[in-house]
Amino acid sequence: MGYKIVVVGATGNVGREMLNILAERQFPVDEIAALASRRSLGTEVSFGDTTLVTKDLNEFDFAGWDIALFAIGSDGTKEHGPRAAKAGCVVIDNSSLYRYDPDVPLIVPEVNADAITGYSKKNIIANPNCSTAQMVVALKPLHDRARIKRVVVSTYQSVSGAGKAGMDELWNQTKGIYVPGQERAADKFTKQIAFNVIPHIDAFMEDGSTKEEWKMVAETKKIIDPAIKVTATCVRVPVFVGHSEAINIEFEDFLDEDEARDILREAPGVMVIDKREDGGYVTPVEAAGDFATFISRIRQDSTIENGLNLWCVSDNLRKGAALNAVQIAETLGARVLKKG
Ligand code: 2RA
Question: Which part of the chain is the Semialdehyde dehydrogenase NAD-binding domain (predicted)?
Fold first, then answer.
């Protein structure tokens, strides 16, 4: 017995990855529906070895369906999420709409799977922001051992985080630099992204930080521990897939770098590649397409009493979005919606 599962936003970067990962992980599917907006209606999408023709989200009745993976942004979820939930279909939403709602669990299964039981209040579960997901996978096992006081993180986020338009802009702008007459001005991003970096993701807030940086603070507190202080600088870089993060951690207690490496080696969802030699670390091009959260450059921060530095890389479309959503569905199936 499997589940009747819906992927909402099946033609976008994350929606397509959700379908790929459901198939790769052989999620128990009895029936699957791929939904899209009217403008993408009829588009064919792959689900393992089969091809699905997208159906109209606006006309779709969620009654009788078990789980809906939403990847259509906050506005779309606002319009269709509640009606899916009300029809008895558990919504796993990749947008930020419900992440900070006290009645909606924000879940990274390797970190806080137990919180999933709170889904029944609204029949909705929130998926964290991509840059948060990989970071909390790395932080949680270390927090359990030496209690984290403060995190300082700088992110190097790929253009796929800004959707297909972001990827197209990097591609066309880069080409345009070499092909006379094909120059491309900034459009999706505020400044040139080809051969450049942009310290601005999402809207600016009153205090000078951006919404992306605020998300990392608020979501880390909700997922792991509200006592943890987090400060972030989120930067867009000319990489197609894979977010990287330089993470500095201050603990309550001293944690030796070797012990930290051993802990991370055993941590769920983590792959440690950490050799102090040429190539002894992971880069986005190696992480893209993989399920793991990769950790490298683990080393003491001797400028503070209990400090540690590390480098964290993961596929932002997978662990950062689609994989985490599918893992939430797996956890929901295993713990709550058990099917014989
Ligand atoms: C980004 N985290 O990278 C945001 C949304 N995916 O653009």
Answer: 4-119
